[in-house]
Amino acid sequence: MGYQFDFSMVIKILPVLWRGVIVTLELWAACLAIGLILGFFIALMRVSPAAPLRFLGRAFVEIFRNIPALIQLIWFFYAFPILIGAQLTPFTAAVLGISLNTAAFSAEIYRSGIQSIERGQWEGAMAIGMSRVATFRRVILPQVFRRMLPAFTNRAVEVAKVTSLASVLSVHELMYQGRLLSSTYYRPLEILTTVGIVYLVMIYPMTWTSAALERRMRRKA
Amino acid sequence: MNDTTPTDAPILRCEGLRKSFGNLEVLKGIDLDVKRGDRIAIIGGSGSGKSTFLRCLNFMEQPTGGKVILDGERIGTPRTGRDGSETVTYRERDLMSVRKRVGMVFQQFNLFPHMSTIENVMEGLVTVLRQSKSAARTRAAEQLDRVGLGDKLDVYPSRLSGGQQQRVAIARALAMDPEVLLFDEPTSSLDPELVGEVLRTILALAEDGRTMLLVTHELGFAYRFATHVIYLYDGVVHETGTAEQVFRNPQKEKTRAFIARSSEFSL
Amino acid sequence: MQQYEWDFGSVLTYWPMLLQGLWGTVAISTLAILLGIVGGGLVAAMRMSRYRSLRILGTAYVEFYRNTPGIVHFFWVYYAPPVVANVNLGPLEAAVIALATQSSAFYAEVLRGGIQSIGNGQWEGATALGMSSKDALRRIIVPQAARRMVAPFVERSFEIIKTSSLASTLAYGELLYQGMQIASITYRPLETYTLLALIYFLLLYLLSSLAKFAEDRLQEV
Fold this sequence. Notes:
The complex is a heterotrimer.
Chain A: H1 7-46, H2 51-65, H3 69-84, H4 90-116, H5 119-127, H6 132-162, H7 174-185, H8 188-220
Chain B: E1 12-21, E2 24-34, E3 39-43, H1 50-57, E4 65-70, E5 73-74, E6 77-80, E7 86-89, H2 92-101, E8 102-105, H3 117-127, H4 133-146, H5 162-175, E9 180-184, H6 192-207, E10 211-215, H7 219-225, E11 228-233, E12 236-242, H8 243-248, H9 253-261
Helix pairs in contact in B: 3-4, 3-5, 4-5, 5-6
Chain C: H1 8-12, H2 15-47, H3 52-66, H4 70-85, H5 91-116, H6 120-128, H7 133-163, H8 175-186, H9 189-220
Helix pairs in contact in C: 2-3, 2-5, 2-8, 3-5, 4-5, 5-7, 6-7, 7-9, 8-9
């Protein structure tokens, strides 16, 4: 009882947290970009006519989806270097882990998007003499992107949250700075609450956009 | 049972009924008296407010003005504001007791897909009328038999044709023995070849002297079904009278045009 | 590059520790799922309440948890109460509270989504018979919604099991924490973390196969 919330502490730590925010944003952007691109190719494997490719794609997705992201990060930082015989910086290990994780989840978004396009679209395009590849590129994909936009935005939200796990590898992102400050000043309430709010401010616009996109699509349907 | 006081007083009455959705006023003050045994067809073009009107009578939509009086009793609790305007609050309990006495058959049937045919019909008897399961089962089977589905008691709605589903919905409403039965375009979502069986079922009810209101755009059917007809236009009663009067000898220009336009109407 | 000599044997000699960790993971996940269902029911009821203030409160709760990383909640629950109110929570309690409050938000959305997915016609069909809205909910809406909620409920529960690995950051002895101990004893991080990943994978893959089986059985009805 009678605990005094120290607002001056909030002001004091903001510059340090800001440095963390920059690193978080860097991580976020890198992992999202790599994950979305890689995920696309994994989705292609998953819908490929070649069974071995389909199997590989599926294995990749199942492995990264059924293992906690934190384990993946720790594995890439502490175990993977032994395998390749070279040290990774915490940032690189984090990017590697989060990107592959993101790729697995986005592959599933692409795949369900591709499979949600009605047969009639394929037939319509082939009937005017378009090749399979051209049909895929010019007819199917544009619809997939549009239809799956809310799902991709959602994934972006998840990735932003996952980047906080990089603090465990001592990547100097937002959560790491928060933890460090919290143990330095012994003011966990003020500091961790501020960290939470900063995340909220960063992530909420994304969630909002995703919900707005979904609403708009439902209206159109 | 429909054997309350044998007066000529209307069983259902509404005065100045209004309904708005946001800024859009759909019903602009409708008066209506329904006497026991009346069969009233409500006709009108799309957007005339005919479905909304029907749905106000069992409070699927809450009216924004006017009165609904069931068997002499006004529904809802009116309160007069300081400026003299009246607002009516409808408590759930009041609405439940209205709906027990005023049944409805929907355009989209609204059967419960997780229950078999007989369970659909039993549901109201058990949860609303608190009948025992065995009594409810007997009554439900009777009602289904009556609509010609005595052999489909344990079938799920998804296995039935649209026409059969609508007949189950009619049995479900009938089982409650409502004093008034409302039909909201009961054949509009059916394939043409299935319309006949549903219309025949409804006409059979007419012979029992049940009080019914029907919204439809099948004018030929409305003529055979109805004792009285209401033609709604732009949210008001444009013309009303017996079925003979309105169909054979409409007094107003718009009514005449509307009936003439309906190509399917052949008396 | 020198060939790495794999040695799972020395890691596996510590199998009792791993078993203990597995138990810890199962224990906090189960507790969080059970508490989360109760909390989720409450939050969903708030979000669908007829009172605006309750709806706003419910929405704020869900949005907070959706837009902030889980690790922030873990640290907050563990470090803030002792300083603020002189309440000391053990790692187990802190982890369960963090997980359960978070899962309440996610389960609330599962419940709400399921109920709202049932068309308005079902409400009308039920109330037109004179049923109270409580009866309509209990007899007509929930039985139908329940079937649609199974898949998202399972998905959310998997997220909880994966998120439970964050309890390692509070030194609670679940799988990851036990694995970290073994890695530092044996100096075999590659084998240890690979083994951990494998255990998680098998656990979740097994559970998801079970869930799929149960789901198929449910859909048959």
